[in-house]
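#dry-run=false #mode=assembly
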Amino acid sequence: MFEAVYIADRNNTLIYEYLINLTSPTFKSLTSIIRLNQNSSGKNHGGTSSHSHDSSNNGSDSEKSLIEINQDFFVVFEKTTNVIIYILCSTATTPNPIIPFTFIHRLIEVMSDYFGTPLALTKIDANNDTLTLLINEMIDNGMPNVTDFNKLRDLIPFKSFLSKILSTSSDITAATNKSLSSLTNPQRARVELASRDESLNSIPWRRSNVKYTNNEMYVDVVETINVILKPTSKAIGGKNSLLSSNAATHLDSAFYSTSSLKTSATQLVPIVGSIDGQVNFISHLTGIPLLQLILSVAGLNIQLPSFHQCINLEKYLENPGTLSFIPPDGKSTLMNYQIDLDSFETRRDQLSLLGLIDIDFQTGLGSNQNEFEIRLFIKNVKSVSKIENLTIEIFCEDVIEENSNDNDNNTSNSNNIEDDRITNIKSGRITHGDFNYKGHGRAEWNLRTISSTIQPMIHGSIITTALDDSSSNSEVFKESSEQPDLIEGVTGTGKNGEDTKSPRALSSVKPLFLKLSYSHKGAVPSGIKVDSLKIISAKGLGETVKPYKGVKYITKTGDFIVRS
Amino acid sequence: MADSFSKISSMLESAKDLTIEAAVSASSRLTDTPSSQRTQEIPKLLNSRVDRDVLNGMKCVISIIARGEDGLPYFADVVKNVSTTNPSIRSLVLIYLTRYGEVEPDTALLSINTIQRSLTEKNPINRAQAIKSLAGIRISSILPIVLLCIKRTVTDPSPLVRSATAIAIGKAFDIEEIESSSRKQLIEFLTKLLSDSDSTVVSAAIKTYYKVKVEFASSSKIWEPIHGNFRRFCSIIKDIDEWSQCFLIDFLTEYCRKFLPKPKLYMANDTNQVIDLPEDYSQIPFPIYEVSFDNDLSLFINSLKILIYSRPESVLLAVSRAVYSLAPPSTFKEFQLNLPLVRIATSQDPHIALFALQTISYISWKDNTIFAPNFKRFYLFPTDSFAVASCKLDILSSLAGENNIKYILEELKYYSLHSRNSAISQEAIRAIGRCSQLSPEWNKKILSWCLKQIKYTNGSILNELLTVVRYLIQQKNNFTVNIANEREDIIHTTYKLSLILQDDSLNYEAKACIIWIIGEFNDVAENSIGPDALRLLVKNFAREVESVRYQILILAAKVASYEVKRIKSEVGDNDFEYNERLSTNINFKMFQHVLNLAKYDSSYDTRDRARMLNVLLNSTSSQAELASLFLQVPKPVPVVTSKNDSNADLTKALSAYLSVRDWSNEANLPSSSIRKEVPVIQNSLSAAGISSVSSTFNKSVSPPPIMSTRSISSESYHNSKPVAASAKQSYHLQSLDEFFGNDEEEDSEVGQSSSAEEDEEENSSTDESSEEEEEEGGEEESDGEDQEDQYEVDDSDASSKKAFLSKGS
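#status=ok
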């Protein structure tokens, strides 16, 4: 099973190591192998990691996460913002390859609970004695043991000398808060004192003797939209009388569009999409409360959600939407679910789940057919006042990759494309936000935070070398004549240089796809609502204590792609 | 007022981070001092009489180890502190001891007595720590003591200690020179813990069992503890922790395949046709079938049903593996296991998603009906990494069926032409090639698409396209060459390719590849296209690139060899006429011309090959057959598989996990009576007499300190006789301990003990009261709604919540 845990910084300098056996290899002895593998994986996919910044910006700059050291051992690792956590496993007794990853996740959870987020080098270094104690409990005899941070809190108290001072000071504030609140709510101050501090409760996910002066609980419903939208012309769409209303809006947009009306027959249709949802819970409740959370999920097909172990499954299966549980102390994720757009019969239902922003995306406009126009229509929902971090990335063909990927045959074959290489993307008219060209065929329209009542629009054009003046063409011409081969050199130019250009320059240049990202609070696309959150029974919590409750709805985008 | 206080507390929160860092610099001062001074400083601290200094010293030692340096020099000074009463110091010392104990066994032995003594402490955490570290100090000479201690703690009232014992058993197995008798004893203890009443203890025991099982895989007796517990495990599987769930599912899967009969399949509405579950699920002959399971097998499989709601991905993977390897695909579908797997596969965590994708791809290649309804979920997002993308493409091509190929193919075409990463485009084209196997009709459509694209693509994508074209043609050639229209197809395709050749803008690699294809199928086309293509190519021979020239030479040879063969078969052994006809044959003349051109080629390879072909084809007729064999040998169909080497390690690890042992022969299976349940061991009430004793005790009586100081001391280690006596004594004390354990645990099963009853009454009364309160809350409906409204509005973020809260209070 596990042989060692190493924590290193992003440059693979060791910060912390925990060896299960004396015979386990130290990090030093493995560094070279690890470095080699991390580098080589970077080299193999040089195209992906160095050029397409888009694919690496979701956090995984190295694809490889499992390195085989030799026949008997392998290392898995996970990168966080500051540190890399490695786990050395023996092959013979680690059959389920996901276990080490799950363990790393638990370790990160525990470390952030103890040392705070984000994980910082200094914090790990400063508390490496506590960390040793923690890992000593989490891994025993090479097997994952107690990994729940609530349970670990029982086993390993974490109080440094300074935090004691801090806790006393926060006690003072708490005490004053208490005295103040006792004026309005005298029962709140009554904190039950558990007499036996040794007793460990039998709930494996909740630490014992939880005491709070301010009892509060928060529910966060977070949903992430992943979708690919594709334009479909109305005629092909077939039996879409249902869509008449949508089509109307698109026609409207075309009417206002300054360019032309001819492309207005297309509309965006999701070809694949899903909404990933999460119900997060923060509990600061004294004693052992039993809670009931009722979600209204009417009309939604929530496919086999997964639950935190605290959720009473029988209750949920009887009444879908009812979560009955004794919450873990602190932060936890109660439920993960996914809604597949494919499970909805009609397109209208599918479109209604795509959040607040409708897009109108036209390409191939202008005399050179190299212009495009994007309009955003933000649906007005009362609970959502503003859209945050709204960014639209525009991706065109990234040509440079072609050269670097085929090192062996980089002579003449890429010249064809180089003719219409994209040199710039310009914005003609823009109503809101900033527009920047980022290189490699990628541009970004950054709207930041906008109120939900405006309708931003952009009209841009893609500048390619083919559209530039002819001087650059002659350069291409020269380049292509640099053939290594003797005979080729004589004749290659006439063949590769000009002939292909003429048909290509005429074809329309358009962005490959758009990537939309934004977040907002106040509503989730699926329309799931927290109907009620009740305390069913509260052992240890005063009978009349009414904890503060909060509900938050957050919508985010994962991959929101609009194809052209 | 409240506002300002909350402000202060939030300020203090932020100050906390700073102060922690300040504390770092203070405490790490020692570890930063040069090692020469450190060796003096640390022992000084460790030998101090003040606990705080010792603690600091220990922290230094631990952090030295954590930085990858050697902590051994401080061994003696550290071990001295084992008798400390400070829990923080002791846990650090014990960690140190388990790390370095085996290196300095003599010094380590000094600490054994103290650790043993803490086995009798009242705090279960300390007892658990003691038994774990005792077994963790891997010194073979203390094994008898370890065994005795384990024997004691196996029946400890606290589940925490019993779980620790289970772990200790696993550690004791690792001690070198362990005798088989003590092993047997350890297995006995473990068996006891496996049937413990508390699920946390069973969890720990399962982990240890799993580890031990791997080490003693050869022993046939290793399954013995499982038989009696099999049914119980199935019933408690949802209560144990996530890790144990994985291990339990894994070894029970193995168990099922070893000790249980295969499920039987029979056709719906027709019970006469019954077959065993085949290894390869694609061989199930019935379109619709029903399954009958062995009772125990269905018990296990049904127990897994609830686990598909669990969160850890590792558990879901384990469940998928179990269901997939124990039941036919229909059960997999019935469980809807495809949904959680798809959810993980499309989750945000790229590493785990990759594992799920690999699993799906593994299953889909064996049975593509399971994930077929979800095929759209495997469409590529432009942000997918190459590893994820290639895995998704693999799945897409495996899922292609008559119903969905239209959509899948359309997507694949999009990726091959519009992907920003050319590696993904190549994979997509390969996937298209794989889809062509579906039916001749689709093969045709794909082929014509490929031919169309050849003109517009270049570079690696073009190469990939041509490989697919070659693959498609060869496929036709291999399987259906006898059918006339298939042959026509091939001729037609090669003709189209020869037309493409005339396009001047064609990339040289594509050109070389097309020439090769024309040459290769020249035989099938009966020299109808090759010679003409050759005629056109020869004109420009000198202007072509090296690889194209080489391929022209080969084409010429193939065309010539076809002629040679034809003439040979016509004229027989008549050498004169053979030479006569050959020299007048235009195709052969072209070959001679190409040979002449190639003679002066700049490339060694081409010159070399020209000389060889010259000898082969220009000499006497006897070599004609050799030449045609040589040039027209059927080439193997290129294997169009994913060239995905980036995650080979990962694939290897996963496929090793997904493969399972074979089903046992049904004739040799033991009867199912071996799985008769063994009684569950209730340690909190182990002896009937004790509970009656305990019931006479009143709760208010303060417990006398339990100290069996000499229960198992080093004395007993040297002399075996007192051991028995002390063990007996300890048993008695144990029971008292148990009683207090009951008191502490509030085990609901302790019905007889009055104290527990009281407790329960208390509980229920509070429950009732809270219910009442709930009802009251119901009456104040409007009030509650108000409150909800308040927090509905106030959902901007946590800080504002806080502010709101303090305002409200």
